[in-house]
Amino acid sequence: MCGIAGLIHRGKSSNVGSELQGMLQALKHRGEDSTGYALYGDTDGKNFIMRFKVGENVGEGSSSIVEDISVYDGRKKIVDQYLSEMGAKIIKEERVLPYSLRYEIEYDTKDLLEFSQKIESIPGVEILSMGKSLEVIKDLGNAKMVCDRYDLDKVVGTHAIGHARMATESGVDIKSAHPFWGYPFSDVSVVHNGQLTNYWNNRRMLENKGMRFMSECDSELIAVYIAQKMREGASLEEGMKASLTGLDGVFTYFVATKDSLGMAKDTMAAKPLVLYESDDLVAMGSEEIAIRSVLPQEIDTYDPFDGEVKVWQI
User: Using CA atoms, how far apart are residues 34 and 38, in angstroms rounded to an integer?
Assistant: First the structure.
């Protein structure tokens, strides 16, 4: 089932954290196993923002969280050591939860592949996002629970995408939750509703090219597929159009970069999508109720066609 939502403000910033929370909470009946946010905030663009986890949410307040803190501390210490070895300087550090951290990093690189491989060689560590405006935050529970846990309702930015998940084919854990970072491409994220039937063939092909997968969730394939196309020189729109034939199954997905938001529907158009567009705002979701959470007034919406790809710029 699952629900996806996204919005982009063109030419201005807004409280995208609060807006996306409202959209996703309106879709909670489509899944409350986990919720994820990809927020594109107002930053100076100088430093990388790295959101990463050193463990899983195993139940807030349980003894297992307390028992694991020393393990989390050990993994964090190795992350800090590796960053230093690679010449990355931690400008700001925030430990949001025992297993969830946010670093602002001064690092001079155009390719994050080697960087990511080094950090994720530490068992139990996963980079959720890397970018100069993107921050991926995802955890167990519905949209309000995750928003409150990470204090997201104050985030100001230009655009955002999110996902309310009902786990059907992979585990109820953070690594299987959406959005997925377009590893190792800076500032790319993806959310997806549907099912891919050629997941393993594509995954093996991309792994042979040096790409990595952190879960067995088929949706992660879209993020890695798009990122690989862009690494080969394709534009975002070209990569998305290629996915219509490169990926089999039924799917509607959103993909965002630091300055754009896109949507794609497969040629069967089996998965729902409702879209609103004006000169300064685009909002879309699995159901119109998501859009109504931010635009309660009378508006005109429409359903995109089968096999349609659209991209908007900020």
Answer: 14
Identify the active-site residue in 1, 2, 29, 302. 2
Q: Is 147 a catalytic residue?
A: no
48 in the same domain as 37: no
User: For 160-174, what is the mean pLDDT?
Assistant: 84
Same domain? For 163 and 17 the reply is: yes
Q: What is the mean pLDDT of residues 42-51?
A: 85
Q: What is the mean pLDDT of the chain?
A: 90
205 plus 304 within the same structural domain: yes
In whole angstroms, give the CA distance from residue 93 to residue 180: 22
* Whether residues 97 and 33 fall in one domain: no
Half-sphere exposure in the Cβ direction for 17 (13 Å, CA):
19
Could you tell me if 162 and 305 lie in one domain? yes
Mean pLDDT for the stretch of residues 34-56 = 91
C-alpha pair distances (Å), 284 with each of 155, 195, 270: 19, 20, 16
Reported as a single tens digit per residue, the pLDDT across 110-164 is 678 889 999 999 999 999 999 999 999 999 999 999 999 999 999 999 999 999 9
More confident residue, 128 or 185: 128
Q: Which residues sit opposite 41 in a β-bridge?
A: 157
Structure confidence at residue 102 (pLDDT): 97
3-class SS shares of the chain: helix, strand, coil, % to 5 = 30, 30, 40
Q: What is the DSSP letter of 14?
A: B
User: Please, is 168 exposed, middle or buried when counting C-beta atoms within 10 Å of its C-beta (0-12, 13-18, 19+)?
Assistant: exposed
Question: What's the DSSP call for residue 119?
Answer: H
Task: Determine phi and psi for 216, rounding to 5 degrees.
Answer: -110, 20
Is residue 165 within 8 A of residue 27, CB to CB? The reply is: no
As a whole number of angstroms, the distance between CA 146 and CA 137 comes to 8
What residues make up the domain containing 68? 44-132
